[in-house]
Amino acid sequence: MTKQVQQLDRVIIRFAGDSGDGMQLTGDRFTAETASFGNDLSTLPNFPAEIRAPAGTLPGVSSFQLHFADHDILTPGDAPNVLVAMNPAALKANLSDLPRGADIIANADEFTKRNLQKVGYDVNPLEDESLAEWRLHSVPLTSLTVKALEEFDISKKDAERAKNMFALGLLSWLYGRPVEATIKFIETKFAKKPAIAKSNVAAFNAGYNYGETTEAFSVSYEIKPAPLSAGVYRNISGNQALALGLVAASVQSKLPLFLGSYPITPASDILHELSKHKRFGIRTFQAEDEIAGVGAALGAAFGGALGVTTTSGPGVALKAETVGLAVTTELPLIVVDVQRAGPSTGMPTKTEQTDLLMALFGRNGESPVPVIAPATPSDCFDAAVEAARIAIKYRTPVMLLSDGYLANGSEPWKVPSQAELPDISVPYTTEPNGDDGTTFLPFKRDAETLARPWAIPGTPGLEHRIGGIEKADGTGNISYDPSNHDLMVRLRQAKIDGIDVPDLEVDDPDGDARVLVLGWGSTYGPIAAAARRVRRGGGKVAQAHLRHLNPFPKNIGEVLKSYDKVLLPEINLGQLALLLRAKFLVDIISYNRVRGLPFKAEELAGVIQEVIDSE
Amino acid sequence: MTKQVQQLDRVIIRFAGDSGDGMQLTGDRFTAETASFGNDLSTLPNFPAEIRAPAGTLPGVSSFQLHFADHDILTPGDAPNVLVAMNPAALKANLSDLPRGADIIANADEFTKRNLQKVGYDVNPLEDESLAEWRLHSVPLTSLTVKALEEFDISKKDAERAKNMFALGLLSWLYGRPVEATIKFIETKFAKKPAIAKSNVAAFNAGYNYGETTEAFSVSYEIKPAPLSAGVYRNISGNQALALGLVAASVQSKLPLFLGSYPITPASDILHELSKHKRFGIRTFQAEDEIAGVGAALGAAFGGALGVTTTSGPGVALKAETVGLAVTTELPLIVVDVQRAGPSTGMPTKTEQTDLLMALFGRNGESPVPVIAPATPSDCFDAAVEAARIAIKYRTPVMLLSDGYLANGSEPWKVPSQAELPDISVPYTTEPNGDDGTTFLPFKRDAETLARPWAIPGTPGLEHRIGGIEKADGTGNISYDPSNHDLMVRLRQAKIDGIDVPDLEVDDPDGDARVLVLGWGSTYGPIAAAARRVRRGGGKVAQAHLRHLNPFPKNIGEVLKSYDKVLLPEINLGQLALLLRAKFLVDIISYNRVRGLPFKAEELAGVIQEVIDSE
Amino acid sequence: MSESLNGKGLALVPKAEGKQTLKDFKSDQEVRWCPGCGDYAILAAVQSFMPELGIKRENTVFVSGIGCSSRFPYYMNTYGFHSIHGRAPAIATGLAASRPDLSVWVITGDGDALSIGGNHLIHALRRNVNLNILLFNNRIYGLTKGQYSPTSEVGKITKSTPMGSLDKPFNPISLAVGAEAGFVARTIDSDRKHLHSVLREAAAHRGTSLVEIYQNCNIFNDNAFEDLKDPEKRDVITLRLEHGQPIANATQAVRLAPTGGLEVVARDSISPEEILVHDVHNPDPSLAFALSRLDEPAFQHVPIGIFRSVDRPSYDHLMSEQLEMAVAQRGPGDLDELLQGGDTWKIN
Amino acid sequence: MSESLNGKGLALVPKAEGKQTLKDFKSDQEVRWCPGCGDYAILAAVQSFMPELGIKRENTVFVSGIGCSSRFPYYMNTYGFHSIHGRAPAIATGLAASRPDLSVWVITGDGDALSIGGNHLIHALRRNVNLNILLFNNRIYGLTKGQYSPTSEVGKITKSTPMGSLDKPFNPISLAVGAEAGFVARTIDSDRKHLHSVLREAAAHRGTSLVEIYQNCNIFNDNAFEDLKDPEKRDVITLRLEHGQPIANATQAVRLAPTGGLEVVARDSISPEEILVHDVHNPDPSLAFALSRLDEPAFQHVPIGIFRSVDRPSYDHLMSEQLEMAVAQRGPGDLDELLQGGDTWKIN
Ligand SMILES: Cc1ncc(C[n+]2csc(CCOP(=O)(O)OP(=O)(O)O)c2C)c(N)n1
Ligand SMILES: Cc1ncc(C[n+]2csc(CCOP(=O)(O)OP(=O)(O)O)c2C)c(N)n1
Ligand code: SF4
Ligand code: SF4
Ligand SMILES: [Mg+2]
Ligand SMILES: [Mg+2]
């Protein structure tokens, strides 16, 4: 049977099932296939905080959304074209996001009376008319899988567990994905359990063949590769990119990396990733708490290492005092905050941009630190290198604000070669810097950067002491002199204010927009996608995205003032808006939603259009 | 011999000596005499961080400044009229603050070659002409004291130690202070060492008589009592007033007070003071660290106590995570920050206003808290009661920002009677609040205040669980629902925004000023004194002082906009200015000095005048 | 007066009126641990144990930190506080010190109690506030998906230690004894009867009691305590500690080593009189400490039960006493008197 | 390989070329403790001890927290870091773990180490990073002007405890032993010779060594250790711990108690063979723990010296080993290879 093949330019698929159904793995594999096929893509995993929430319940639903296209895309998509629902809970939890007309592939086997009751369905939605406005494919995924694996010597439970591979096979057929890598992946993953490996491969193939041979699906789809610029690509999540960026920073600064960290969702994966790269001389230290994590990183920095600590919101709060010590001792340090929904424990697996003001102000005293925020998952790589560059050059702690969405979301990344990366090394100080040629002044600053010398233990003749008490300009000796304190407060501020930050670039294709939409951090994708939509609809909007939150790019005031209106969407109650309003006295229009989720492009397009229309 | 008595309206005296010379005690006693005499007064102690810095050195100098007058005064004074210098270091360290023509009473005995060398005097300044522009009284205080005590059975060291009492006696004569209370004080203090008591009294009397009988001083001074409003007065420091305010808050709220605290300069005295008042049912708990201190206070609040924690800057940084938990569990809690010079350890004994933004933003997530700052030492009492009122009524942590200047400075305080104090009690919830009459909804809010019910363990039928994870509106059950989170974030913010805060009052005697000088916290005295000076000189300036930093008084926007220029002096780099600029887009003029010292009235008068002149 | 409360952990907690059942202690919240998690067994054991105490349910509070185990309070139909990571002992200290009429239970994990919360734990133990601390030791970080913990064995391969962990684990019993703990015990999730017996004594102890509960995390550290559950091995490696009883099982016995300390020997190699008789009330903690070391090499001989139960006045009680004494000496506080205290003067 | 460094605390630290003297280790900063403070004696002892180590001065680092004692680094002409309250062990851990060529010393007080910093201390001990921790125990908070500390005796009247403190103090030695410490010792400010002997062994130990130093604060807790200095009492209450030597002084002796644990008896009441011979290398920490308890009741018999010195591989060393092993197995890291790792595809 030859089936019809339909051309599409983009598709959004959401895999949803129970936490135990392996949806994250399924999504990851489909993503890998799609990446290697050459589509542009963007992903959004979404899972419960519980390790294994009770089976079949709404809080137990885990999902993975993937947007892929034959052109460059910016977000994981607002509304899925296809929902794979492995049980009633998955259907119920996700249906409201599904536009009418979208496809639903439901695992009919799981729509048992008991499972339906668990989520409050009185009748089976696969059987009444309630899904009439969608294209429902009711497929007995479990029993098909079990049947396909009859001949294997595995338990029924193991056979049932392979149903996600069946689903993956089916979807792979449906969208013409290359399958070899997945088969290899399964074989490697279960190398130690050959029976499981074989049965999973078989389930995957069965799913593929089910699509191809049965009549359940009459159409398959083709989405051409995207015309990405030439190069080697890989799909990468924000946490992975951030970790690799730190490795690259270590190599490019010629400094050994020391990570002091305490596990916390959604930052732990950076620790996990870095702990694999010991070949690079990277030391990872799982500390007893966040305070020890940053303390050890600072101690290592005193010893000449690239000190890094990684955490999420509550952990940053705990590190505050030590970051203050880093500020006043002027040692390089990178503090990574993978923001999650707060306050307090909040919603650990959900994203948010609510730690900006804490990053800037969450310490006692005047305690300025540079703040950098990556815009997309792959941008976490560059942001990490940039954070290291600033930390080392200016001898300062740097706050790097990622978030839950960037951390777990992924996209294709054009892998840079080492040769393309900047050299960010700065030599340690090894000679006396006093006018007499013999004394060493640990707080005598570089005239241009205002950075103090970094002389590390082991350097003869430069023995010196630093600490948290106010230091005399130059000598660094303890000083309670009022004028010296005022001077030092201002010097520390001036050093941060003077950091070399690239100008803010504005994207305004026609050059005549009167409204600027501004963003920072992970809202880049939805904002850019929204701007595109607005422009497609004839609206004029300029777009700019801040990566440097402190100091701001030098031209930002000018940029802000050259538009009639500035719209600033943030996943908080207006934190960047507060800073910009204060600094430039510009009446920024804030758009704030604090739902633990990224913005949707459509939503933002509407908001932008409204602002344009109100002109 | 009858001596001439000269009338003065005000005097500023600075006692300065070695840390071991008892200058703080001397100053305290002179203050007590002055207070009981009925002058208005204001004090400024200033001491080194070291417990006993090396004798005779500049860093070891300890001083106590007292300003007293026959009218109401606002600051401890800019420039002393009299310096008592117990040794060369004290002279050297303080001379630059002394206007020409001022009196210097120097302890000639201590101007030995060795002591002079220690501080870099080549020749004895008491003997060359270098002090010609001041009125120098070179008095051999030590030997006069030792001589006066010859007949007592005490060691020479003990006799020498009494020299501060001799100086106190002399000054008491010079300014006609009542002496009985001091004599009683000495007798009580040394009750267990009668010889020491007697000799100190004798030294004190000898000093007094020295003034009266010798020809060294030809004039004494009279400063009439100030026409303060009728009532009972006492002299009180900010830390004392704050502690008493907390006791009063406990009584007036009918809640047992639980203080969880960890010692830190300059906040420890609040712990010390409260630990004395166990008769009020006050429990003071010296915790293992700041985190445990605030944790225990929060635990006690969960149990129905008025939970309080007291600390200074670095300690606040450590408490951030727990304060966030208090925000999200919506429990009453008072966090007292006696600000000191930062960042990091900074200058622990020096004052600063640099923790405002940390108080507001130093936690992960959107985590709003009310912030209150007292204006003067005695105002710490009212501010503490007000903080408690808000904490209890709105079930929220409240930040109370005192500082090192308020903490140790003192002034006369008109003691309120209990009957004048507000009743700030709010009953615990004891009945189910669900619509069904039986269920309890721990997050169902009061319609007016948006406060949630406070039902404490021991209340039958209201058993419930709270925690740091996001809670469903009403039930308080764990909720990951995006819309609920957005709602709760906004409700928590709205609750704080809606706190009933009195309007900002503006002092503008003529009503036609075009310049407003605004302040917050401990700058009240110098700002008000400066405004007076400016007005005396014919300048027009309005003055307003913010006690509520979050939320702001409702009328503040209006006030700001009704002046051409708003000047805001702060002992930081412009923290309140940032907030006001952001909120009201008003181009506040900041004046910032971060010297670890309060502003001087003269300095601010100049700044105000400049702003007026630039109109 | 403080002495008289010794051994009466709940003396100041009001008694329940009617008879309570397990059901009274079940909250309406759905339990959300992984199927098969040892936490279920502990929850069921605690719920079934609580009625035995006969105290008012509303005077019972469960305070926890963060971790899988720390979800526990949501499932108890009492007052509860699911706080932040590591801080439960501090929060519970404030609660218990200010409310002697409450029965306060702290639920914590090996990461929560011994990693981030180590300091609060050891200080609670030395202070002896009236708390019962249940430490669910699964030797792994469960909630954050499987990093090693301060009780993980050396060389453990986890997400954060792909080449094996380096640091020597804490022995929670040794640490607690070293921190001046008055009551220290160990039990295991699978043995409800033993769990009950230990909880009973912990509740009766007025002061801080630490109960280490071996708990299986079947997702990230499955079968960590399998030897103690395996019907064949169980009885030959477990050494039950019972006050006044010789410390021995069918095949092994504990005696004083000739060079000091303790040693485990074949039971039939020594005479019954040589077997060490357990004294939980020994004021000298040295033997309790020595007992805590017997589990080396791991799981060859594992003491289970109460290592130490020694009374001393509890912190909350001493604190109340000082308040009462202050009143007794100078009368209850009078605000007007206080405010007008010190050197005052009057202006008319 | 890790084994071979045992007992060689400074094996990886470069040796000094010339001979050093006390003066080399004095910085130009004015010492600012109260006249008479015990810290002076300790500073002088350490400064006079350092040349003996024969390592490069520039490879020596002193890290401290906050407190009077924590001013120490300013006075040493080495590298130094006066950090924040309680965190010195954590900061030093990062430094020592990443720089095995340094000799890292932590200076801390009883409040700094045992109150706010308790958790970092116990974790450093179990990890066994190559650190020497000198804990200046004056049983008071000096810098903040006299509040009680976690080593203050019960009932202590201080500014924060006007009716007396309530909590039982830590015994730093017991706590350290309970926290798996490999090297634990006690000495006293006034006895320079003994201080030197203990520092010598601490430096030689590769791993974390904890040295408690009784230190007099003559301003806020004067004469706390007077009995140990009084020429008349000193010799009858001090029990010197020396490896291989019987634990006894002229009048008292330590023996195994018949019911387990240790006891102090009149020396002439027992035969010399009964006196316990000290074994600092005993792998079982139980006797070291029992020794730490002998100072009850306080100052009747106070063991001084090295309680325990047991080698195990240090954390920093194991960490370096893993790095080397990773390189040995798969070659040094290649950035291009790493970045292009995983599933990549090429677009032309
Ligand atoms: C301040 C802070 N740091 C880190 C975390 C992340 N975190 C949550 S639970 C946990 C450890 C859990 O281990 P354990 O205490 O053993 O409990 P279990 O899950 O094993 O029961 C960590 C690191 C957090 N929630 N808060
Ligand atoms: C975070 C923080 N909390 C509190 C303090 C105040 N503080 C400084 S030193 C100290 C205790 C000092 O006691 P100890 O460690 O025994 O040192 P000592 O002064 O006795 O040598 C305290 C509470 C601080 N500097 N930082
Ligand atoms: S991860 Fe482990 S400890 Fe946590 S609920 Fe699952 S089985 Fe239990
Ligand atoms: S206060 Fe005590 S510990 Fe501190 S310097 Fe003075 S004597 Fe020494
Ligand atoms: Mg655990
Ligand atoms: Mg101390």
Automatic annotation (TrEMBL), chains A, B:
Gene Ontology biological process: response to oxidative stress
Record-linked Gene3D superfamilies: 3.40.50.920, 3.40.50.970, Pyruvate-ferredoxin oxidoreductase, PFOR, domain III
MF-aspect GO terms: magnesium ion binding; oxidoreductase activity, acting on the aldehyde or oxo group of donors
SUPFAM superfamilies for this protein: Pyruvate-ferredoxin oxidoreductase, PFOR, domain III, Thiamin diphosphate-binding fold (THDP-binding), TK C-terminal domain-like
Keyword Oxidoreductase (UniProt): yes
Top-rank lineage group of the source organism: Bacteria
Domain Pyruvate/ketoisovalerate oxidoreductase catalytic as annotated: residue spans: 20-209
Domain Pyruvate flavodoxin/ferredoxin oxidoreductase pyrimidine binding: 258-424
Keywords from the named record: Oxidoreductase
Full protein name: 2-oxoacid:acceptor oxidoreductase subunit alpha
Organism, scientific name: Herbidospora galbida
UniProtKB/TrEMBL annotation, chains C, D:
Keywords: Oxidoreductase
Domain spans labelled Thiamine pyrophosphate enzyme TPP-binding: 66-213
Membrane spanning residue stretches: none
GO biological process, one term: cellular respiration
Pfam families: TPP_enzyme_C
Keyword Secreted: no
Record-level Gene Ontology MF annotations: magnesium ion binding; oxidoreductase activity, acting on the aldehyde or oxo group of donors, iron-sulfur protein as acceptor; thiamine pyrophosphate binding
Coiled-coil intervals: none
Tagged with keyword Oxidoreductase: yes
Gene3D superfamilies: 3.40.50.970
Protein name as annotated: 2-oxoacid:ferredoxin oxidoreductase subunit beta
Organism of provenance: Herbidospora galbida
